[in-house]
Amino acid sequence: MKNETECFADRLRELISPREIVELAEHGAQTGWPGLIYYHETMALYDEFHKEIWEALYDRVLEDGQVFTNGLGCVQYSEAGDLRGVNVLAYLASYGSHDRGGSGAWNVAGKATFENMLVWWMAEQTAQHLALNFTHAEIEAGDE
Questions:
Q1: Range of the domain at 82
Q2: Residues 36-81: pLDDT tens digits?
């Protein structure tokens, strides 16, 4: 069970070494990493971190500019203040493109594969961020 301060990055660092995180960032989750292989593993991670995953996904879509306007060039907001017109599904459709072996969105056929795809996406995004901040010593120490 997740404690209140644990985040996806903390869990990823528990599952794999710094060197493996760098390799995950370079080669993707479909390569097969401990804790990210079986649906029961990825679905458990999704259950634990779904809110963080969706927040990161939403932020990424906004960064990529996949926001639609109301036709007048204005971004729309709901009465609750939530941004409307953010095309998360279009972004996800491009994840794991067919030319990369058909992973990701191309394999979604139900709840398990959808949650698996989201966890893999989050693992790859997190690994890319972590890999930028590792020192050579941290990577080497992780091999011991």
A1: 40-135
A2: 999 999 999 999 999 999 999 888 877 766 555 444 444 545 555 5
- Give me the number of domains the chain comprises: 1
Domain assignment of residue 53, yes or no: yes
Judge whether 118 lies within some domain. yes
**Angle, in degrees to the nearest 10, between helices 39-63 and 8-15:** 140
Residue 61 domain flag: yes
| Three-state secondary structure readout of the chain | CCCCCCCHHHHHHHHCCHHHHHHHHHHCHHHCCCCCCCHHHHHHHHHHHHHHHHHHHHHHHHHCCCECECCCCCECECCCCCECCECHHHHHHHCCCHHHCCCHHHHCCCHHHHHHHHHHHHHHHHHHHHHHHCCHHHHHHCCC
User: How far apart (Å, rounded) are the C-alpha atoms in residues 57 and 120?
Assistant: 12
119, 95 Cβ separation under 8 angstroms = no
